[in-house]
Design goal:
Helix 1 (9-33) packs across helix 2. The longest helix has 25 residues, at 9-33. With 113 residues, the protein is an alpha+beta fold. The chain is built from 3 helices and 4 strands. Strand 1 and strand 2 form a beta hairpin. It starts with 8 loop residues before the first helix and ends with a strand. The chain has one domain (2-109).
Length: 113
C-alpha cells in the first residue's frame, strides 16, 4: 500500500529518514523542555535544531484547503515545513503534541490516488 505513494525506493527511504530525524529531534526537545510552554516555543526549538542540523525548515507555511469538488475553502498554516516534497504534493506529515506530559507523535500518510 505505502509503496504506491512513492516514485521510487530512494524517495521513500529519504522521506522515512527525514521523518525519523524529525521524530528524534522533537523527542529530544520534549525531554529537555518538558511540557508547559507555549506552542511557539516548541515550534521555534524544533525549527532551530533542524536548521542547525542542515535541514531546510520553513515556519507558518500557508497551505490551501479544498473541498471534495476542488473548491478552495481557505488556508491552513502548517507550523513547520521540513524538506522539499516535490512541488508540495504533500502526502507525509507528522503531528506532534508537546503540550502533554507524555510525548505524542503521529505520522500521517495521505494520498490523492
Amino acid at each position: 500500500m505505502l509503496e504506491s505513494l512513492f516514485d521510487g525506493e530512494d524517495e521513500r527511504d529519504e522521506i522515512f529518514k527525514l521523518c525519523d530525524v524529525v521524530r528524534e529531534t522533537a523527542y529530544s526537545i520534549h525531554k529537555y523542555l518538558r511540557h508547559g510552554h507555549l506552542e511557539s516555543v516548541y515550534e521555534k526549538a524544533l525549527a532551530h535544531r533542524l536548521t542547525k542540523s542542515g535541514h531546510l525548515v520553513q515556519q507558518q507555511i500557508p497551505l490551501p484547503v479544498y473541498d471534495e469538488d476542488g473548491t478552495e475553502l481557505g488556508t491552513f498554516y502548517a507550523d513547520l515545513f521540513v524538506g522539499y516534497l516535490r512541488s508540495s504534493g504533500i502526502e507525509h506529515g507528522l503531528l506532534i503534541n508537546f503540550g502533554s506530559e507524555r510525548f505524542q507523535i503521529k505520522k500521517l500518510v495521505l494520498s490523492n490516488q
